[in-house]
Each structure stands twice: as structure tokens, then as C-alpha cells.
């Protein structure tokens, strides 16, 4: 199942991927968090890996090649912290 994502850059320079349901708009999510939009698109699980692609018409930005790695790393680290 594909979901949407927005990659945000926080004040400290950290990148924060925000993943949300398909029925919401990228601009809705981006507007609710005080951070700069870096990229956006869709993310889906493929062969055990998260893959980012596409773009956001409401924000006028596309996914970047490195987004898949950043999202995967973020979730791997969060999972590791829970154990």
C-alpha cells in the first residue's frame, strides 16, 4: 500500500520524513509543521524496503533519489530504539 510523505528540514538542519494517508494533501501536512519542505511524493513497501517516488502537486516539489534511504534509515533507527 502506498502512502504519501513530506521530507522536512527542521531548524537544526535534521531531515524529518512525515508519512501520512493517501486521502490527505501534502500541503495540509507541510503547513502544520514549522519546517522547510525539501521534497514530497509517495512511499511504498517493496521487497522489504521503503521506496520513495513521485511528486506533490500541492507543494510543487518532487521526491529525491536519497529520500528512500533517509526514510528507511529513520524507521530502522526508530525500530532499534524501541527494542
Characterization of the model:
The chain has 83 residues and is of the alpha+beta class. The chain has one domain. Helices cover 27% and strands 40% of the residues. It is built from two helices and six strands. Strands 2-1-3-4 form a four-stranded antiparallel sheet. Strands 5-6 form a two-stranded antiparallel sheet. The longest helix has 16 residues, at 67-82. The radius of gyration is 12 Å and the shape is globular. The N and C termini lie far apart (26 Å). The relative contact order is 0.23. The mean pLDDT is 91.
The coarse overall form would be: globular
Structural domain tally: 1
The end-to-end distance, rounded to whole angstroms, is 26 Å
Oligomer: single chain
Query: Which ranges are low-confidence, i.e. pLDDT below 50, for 5 or more consecutive residues?
Result: none
Estimated structural class: alpha+beta
Evaluate the radius of gyration.
12 Å
Give average pLDDT, whole number. 91
Helical fraction: 25-40%
> Can you list the strand order of the major beta sheet?
2-1-3-4
* N to C succession of SSEs: EEHEEEEH
Q: Tell me the β content.
A: 35-45%
Q: What's the total count of β strands? A: 6
Tally of helical segments? 2
Largest sheet: 4 strands, antiparallel
Amino acid at each position: 500500500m502506498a502512502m504519501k510523505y513530506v521530507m522536512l528540514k527542521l531548524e537544526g538542519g535534521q531531515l524529518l520524513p512525515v508519512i501520512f494517508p493517501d486521502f490527505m494533501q501534502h500541503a495540509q501536512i507541510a503547513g502544520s509543521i514549522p519546517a522547510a519542505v525539501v521534497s514530497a511524493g509517495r512511499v511504498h513497501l517493496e521487497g522489504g524496503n521503503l521506496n520513495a517516488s513521485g511528486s506533490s502537486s500541492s507543494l510543487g516539489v518532487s521526491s529525491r533519489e536519497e529520500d528512500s534511504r533517509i526514510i528507511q534509515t529513520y524507521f530502522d533507527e526508530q525500530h532499534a530504539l524501541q527494542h
